[in-house]
């Protein structure tokens, strides 16, 4: 009996997506709930699971096609038998690699992890490690029969890329004798021999000295949406940026003094972001327009603070929302940020995670940024940019001393926020960071 595989619900207001990649081929056996394809929407990547166990008999759309929610994209024959899946029949719960809760884009106190950290998985855990890879990389791992835990990733934060897998497979094949070239390598992820896979495409010939090459890659749906939204923000809002610097000595001292007790009590590390979220919540009480939005000819003021935290995900910048941040404790904020960091790293953020938001904080300092002019995330009216901490000479009590200084940038919509309001907001943030006691007594 044939069963159609339909595009699942993709989130509020999302009616269609792009079929990014087929994870299963016609004739391959699939288990119930096993992903057979990946979809890209304007906000997130989603895997499409098989509703039943059987054999994929037909692909109804091509990679790159736009598909609507509810549309049939494939057919599964429940009564047929096919080649055994190369991966485990039931997708394992994504593991939490070392440092998964410490995404650099979220934690101002962490350096980007070394690429080798994400490859420190034993061969016995290969089946689990495969589930944490992106769909394209996971498919390459299964096709080329390589151990992802033994490959050094060249992508952002040490992530594996498809090219890393192909290069590892080619390097593994080179020492083989010609007589063994047709031998089928052993598939570690399955207890039964896998069905023959298509011969991998021939690698690109190495570039000759002086040769100039170009590569054209179609923009993903997410990247197209990011480009459109950012350009719309520039074209619509009257954007202006104001700057200030902040002495991070008090926050650094507070973290050093209480970080062990904090982690022991709450089970989470104390980062810089919680201080800045609390400081922005305090400043927004004095300058509510920074936490407002413009709808038509009306200004909408919010009595709550939903902070969009800019996160660098594998396929582009995303902004999950920490809701009611003004009512949260330091520990609650850190836990929420850590959870989003893990989901961003695994590519499991949902559209609901990123819906809404009244104010944005972006931390470019973890990448070494000294100064920037961040772009507003519509319909919000302001965004705070954090940057790297660096010791600088400052005058203190008539003496030149070295202090850990961070530059702050506030980009805002001048249509609803006056310059004096923007400066006041940034000064309030500066005061709260330089004297964290203000956060406790609401000053």
Please supply descriptive tags for the structure shown above.
443 residues; single chain; 10 helices; 4-stranded antiparallel β-sheet; 3 domains; 19 strands; alpha+beta; OB fold (Dihydrolipoamide Acetyltransferase, E2P); 22% strand
Describe this structure in words.
The chain has 3 domains: 1-90, Beta Barrel (OB fold (Dihydrolipoamide Acetyltransferase, E2P)), CATH 2.40.50.100; 101-177, no CATH class; 222-441, Chloramphenicol acetyltransferase-like domain (Chloramphenicol Acetyltransferase), CATH 3.30.559.10. The N and C termini lie far apart (68 Å). It has helices spanning 126-130, 135-144, 162-173, 221-236, 249-266, 272-286, 330-346, 351-354, 419-434, 437-441; strands spanning 2-6, 16-22, 29-30, 35-40, 45-49, 54-59, 66-68, 72-77, 239-247, 293-295, 298-300, 307-309, 311-313, 316-318, 321-322, 359-363, 382-386, 389-396, 399-413. A hairpin with a 2-residue loop joins strand 10 and strand 11 (298-300). It is α+β, with helices and mostly antiparallel strands. The strands form 5 sheets. Strands 9, 12, 15, 16, 17, 18 and 19 form a 7-stranded mixed beta sheet that branches. A 4-stranded antiparallel beta sheet has the order 1-8-6-3, with no helix packed on it. Residues 84-131 and 175-198 have low confidence and may be disordered. It has 10 helices and 19 strands.
